[in-house]
């Protein structure tokens, strides 16, 4: 991103009648930020900028912080708010199940052909038909031998035979149970990968959960850089390791690929895939002996066996690393709706497969090796991050992208504050009417309790949600419970004829065990809610648990301190309680 791009986008918005409040470029020029006067214009502004800049740029809706400079200099930042209070970004990702089946079948086809070559069974490679692998045989003996080997080692396939001219064709298709298993694995693997990538983004209180058979919902509350989030979450970042084709490789068994680095010639690679990125268990960015960036790869056991088998038999040949990325392409088509011709945008995706490394196999490789030929430290770090977070079992599409504005959140905050004020007022009125002067001290301690709770949440970086506000209101009642136990105990001791100072001392000491037991059981429930709940439920559990700790402190320490301040060391004959 450069200033010229930003100026071009700003001018396009102004020409479209959308007012721009400010346009700023990031320090390193990696992104730009356009602040709008009217928040309701975000969606049409996104469409205008996307049309202007094209598909080479990610145009996302942001909720950027507007903290004044003087507060930033004090290292102050806004409290983290949940999606229901601050707004944020909502993504609905759809997993391409057909691609998951195709990817798995590519690997299995390579293994089957490797087995037939090892057992010296002659066959002919044929183009795949729909979702089945095709192998041709010139004699019945070879066909039966191949069927026996496949039944022994590949039990997930259903085998059928057909005759085409003088060639006997063996068709292999997955069983229904295996298809269902692959689909389930794809959604679970992608769900895990998305969670890991969200953790890499450092988003607090995110929501990542499955929806239906092939969709994943991602909610990132208060995200400042949704463009980065969209880029990391949606990037396939998968790898394929393939052997370079030789002069005697059949033309039908090869594909041509370009290098990511411009100026290098096109290379012919075999269609057979050795391993893919989903068999990578660890990836770390580093440098080789010449100071050039590289990524150190570690494979799982099965991947290591496949890599070793492929390289030990092909020493001296070249092996390429293909980087697979899905690029969004926006097309505009004219449609007639209710007699009115409109131009609608249609989102599509296309695979971009380019070579990032081509090296000669010097010796048999195992489960650990390195990828070189990367374009700078940034690319090596990003590739390592994405592979470390986990490879996608199948590509994902952004079926829905929605930015939730803070307008509804502002109303929720206002209603939450009103509820807290009224709750505090009624609690204070009740306790003052019952316990007179001691009720006033308890109300002061209650106010201090709320201040401590909010300060503690801010220091710990906890996210405040609408259920969290409910937890704050609940904390007020729970905090007063402790004071009620203490004051009732003091009343009982005075009624039994105990001196005032002794009654105060005994009231605080003897009520402590009951307060501790009651709050401890509630704290256990809060821990269960936090461990089993998601999203807003966790927000409620955090607020309630922290509120228990602060209420115990204020009810026992702060209230007792104020009581000792006013009553300590005095000869009091009668107590208003």
From TrEMBL:
<comment type="similarity">
    <text>Belongs to the SecD/SecF family. SecD subfamily.</text>
</comment>
<feature type="domain" description="Protein translocase subunit SecDF P1">
    <location>
        <begin position="187"/>
        <end position="244"/>
    </location>
</feature>
<dbReference type="InterPro" id="IPR055344">
    <property type="entry name" value="SecD_SecF_C_bact"/>
</dbReference>
<dbReference type="InterPro" id="IPR022813">
    <property type="entry name" value="SecD/SecF_arch_bac"/>
</dbReference>
<feature type="transmembrane region" description="Helical">
    <location>
        <begin position="469"/>
        <end position="490"/>
    </location>
</feature>
<keyword id="KW-1003">Cell membrane</keyword>
<dbReference type="Pfam" id="PF21760">
    <property type="entry name" value="SecD_1st"/>
</dbReference>
<dbReference type="InterPro" id="IPR048631">
    <property type="entry name" value="SecD_1st"/>
</dbReference>
<comment type="function">
    <text>Part of the Sec protein translocase complex. Interacts with the SecYEG preprotein conducting channel. SecDF uses the proton motive force (PMF) to complete protein translocation after the ATP-dependent function of SecA.</text>
</comment>
<feature type="domain" description="SecDF P1 head subdomain">
    <location>
        <begin position="256"/>
        <end position="394"/>
    </location>
</feature>
<keyword id="KW-0812">Transmembrane</keyword>
<keyword id="KW-0813">Transport</keyword>
<keyword id="KW-0811">Translocation</keyword>
<dbReference type="Pfam" id="PF07549">
    <property type="entry name" value="Sec_GG"/>
</dbReference>
<dbReference type="Pfam" id="PF13721">
    <property type="entry name" value="SecD-TM1"/>
</dbReference>
<dbReference type="InterPro" id="IPR005791">
    <property type="entry name" value="SecD"/>
</dbReference>
<dbReference type="GO" id="GO:0043952">
    <property type="term" value="P:protein transport by the Sec complex"/>
</dbReference>
<feature type="transmembrane region" description="Helical">
    <location>
        <begin position="445"/>
        <end position="463"/>
    </location>
</feature>
<dbReference type="GO" id="GO:0065002">
    <property type="term" value="P:intracellular protein transmembrane transport"/>
</dbReference>
<feature type="transmembrane region" description="Helical">
    <location>
        <begin position="419"/>
        <end position="438"/>
    </location>
</feature>
<feature type="domain" description="Protein export membrane protein SecD/SecF C-terminal">
    <location>
        <begin position="400"/>
        <end position="563"/>
    </location>
</feature>
<dbReference type="Pfam" id="PF02355">
    <property type="entry name" value="SecD_SecF_C"/>
</dbReference>
<feature type="transmembrane region" description="Helical">
    <location>
        <begin position="511"/>
        <end position="532"/>
    </location>
</feature>
<dbReference type="InterPro" id="IPR022646">
    <property type="entry name" value="SecD/SecF_CS"/>
</dbReference>
<comment type="subunit">
    <text>Forms a complex with SecF. Part of the essential Sec protein translocation apparatus which comprises SecA, SecYEG and auxiliary proteins SecDF-YajC and YidC.</text>
</comment>
<dbReference type="Pfam" id="PF22599">
    <property type="entry name" value="SecDF_P1_head"/>
</dbReference>
<dbReference type="InterPro" id="IPR048634">
    <property type="entry name" value="SecD_SecF_C"/>
</dbReference>
<dbReference type="GO" id="GO:0005886">
    <property type="term" value="C:plasma membrane"/>
</dbReference>
<dbReference type="GO" id="GO:0015450">
    <property type="term" value="F:protein-transporting ATPase activity"/>
</dbReference>
<keyword id="KW-0472">Membrane</keyword>
<feature type="transmembrane region" description="Helical">
    <location>
        <begin position="544"/>
        <end position="567"/>
    </location>
</feature>
<dbReference type="InterPro" id="IPR027398">
    <property type="entry name" value="SecD-TM"/>
</dbReference>
<dbReference type="GO" id="GO:0006605">
    <property type="term" value="P:protein targeting"/>
</dbReference>
<keyword id="KW-1133">Transmembrane helix</keyword>
<protein>
    <recommendedName>
        <fullName>Protein translocase subunit SecD</fullName>
    </recommendedName>
</protein>
<feature type="domain" description="SecD export protein N-terminal TM">
    <location>
        <begin position="2"/>
        <end position="61"/>
    </location>
</feature>
<dbReference type="InterPro" id="IPR054384">
    <property type="entry name" value="SecDF_P1_head"/>
</dbReference>
<keyword id="KW-0653">Protein transport</keyword>
């Amino acid at each position: 991103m450069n200033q010229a791009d930003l100026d071009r986008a700003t001018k396009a918005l102004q020409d479209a009648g959308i007012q721009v409040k400010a346009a700023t470029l990031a320090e390193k020029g990696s992104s730009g930020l356009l602040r709008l006067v009217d928040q309701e214009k975000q969606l049409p502004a996104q469409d205008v900028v996307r049309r202007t800049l094209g598909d080479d740029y990610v145009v996302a809706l942001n909720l950027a912080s507007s903290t004044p400079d003087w507060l930033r200099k004090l290292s102050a930042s806004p409290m983290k708010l949940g999606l229901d209070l601050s707004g944020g970004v909502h993504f609905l990702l759809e997993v391409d199940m057909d691609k998951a089946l195709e990817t798995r079948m590519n690997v299995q086809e390579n293994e089957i052909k490797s087995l037939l070559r090892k057992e010296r069974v002659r066959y002919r490679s044929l183009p795949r038909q729909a979702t089945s692998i095709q192998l041709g045989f010139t004699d019945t003996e070879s066909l039966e031998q191949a069927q026996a080997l496949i039944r022994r080692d590949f039990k997930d396939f259903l085998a059928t035979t057909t005759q085409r001219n003088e060639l006997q064709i063996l068709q292999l298709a997955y069983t229904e149970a295996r298809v269902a298993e692959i689909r389930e694995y794809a959604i679970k693997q992608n769900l895990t990968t998305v969670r890991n990538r969200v953790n890499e983004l450092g988003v607090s209180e995110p929501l990542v959960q499955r929806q239906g058979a092939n969709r994943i919902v991602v909610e990132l509350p208060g995200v400042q850089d949704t463009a980065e989030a969209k880029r990391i979450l949606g990037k396939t970042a998968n790898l394929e390791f393939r052997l370079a084709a030789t002069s005697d490789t059949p033309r039908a068994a090869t594909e041509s690929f370009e290098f990511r680095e411009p100026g290098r010639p096109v290379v012919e690679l075999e269609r057979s895939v050795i391993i893919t990125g989903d068999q990578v268990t660890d990836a770390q960015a580093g440098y080789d002996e010449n100071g050039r960036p590289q990524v150190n790869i570690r494979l799982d056991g099965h991947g290591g066996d496949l890599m070793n088998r492929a390289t030990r038999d092909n020493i001296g040949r070249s092996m390429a690393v293909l980087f697979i990325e899905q690029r969004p392409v926006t097309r505009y088509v004219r449609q007639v709706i209710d007699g009115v011709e409109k131009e609608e945008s249609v989102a599509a995706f296309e695979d971009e497969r380019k070579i990032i490394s081509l090296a000669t196999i010097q010796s048999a490789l195992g489960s650990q090796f390195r990828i070189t030929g990367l374009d700078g430290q940034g690319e090596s770090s990003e590739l390592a991050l994405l592979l470390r977070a986990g490879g996608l079992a199948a590509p994902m599409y952004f079926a829905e992208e929605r930015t939730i504005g803070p307008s509804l959140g502002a109303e929720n905050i206002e209603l939450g504050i009103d509820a807290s004020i009224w709750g505090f007022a009624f609690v204070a009125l009740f306790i003052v009417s019952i316990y007179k002067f001691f009720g006033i001290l308890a109300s002061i301690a209650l106010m201090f309790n709320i201040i401590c709770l909010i300060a503690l949440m801010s220091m710990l970086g906890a996210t405040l949600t609408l259920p969290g506000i409910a937890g704050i209101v609940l904390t007020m009642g729970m905090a007063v419970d402790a004071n009620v136990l203490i004051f009732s105990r003091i009343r009982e001791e005075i009624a039994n004829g105990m001196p005032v100072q002794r009654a105060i001392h005994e009231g605080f000491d003897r009520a402590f065990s009951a307060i501790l037991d009651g709050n401890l059981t509630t704290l256990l429930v809060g821990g269960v809610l936090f461990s089993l709940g998601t999203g807003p439920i966790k927000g409620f559990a955090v607020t309630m648990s922290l509120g228990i700790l602060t209420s115990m402190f204020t009810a026992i320490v702060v209230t007792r301190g104020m009581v000792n301040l006013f009553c300590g060391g005095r000869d009091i004959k009668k107590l208003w309680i």
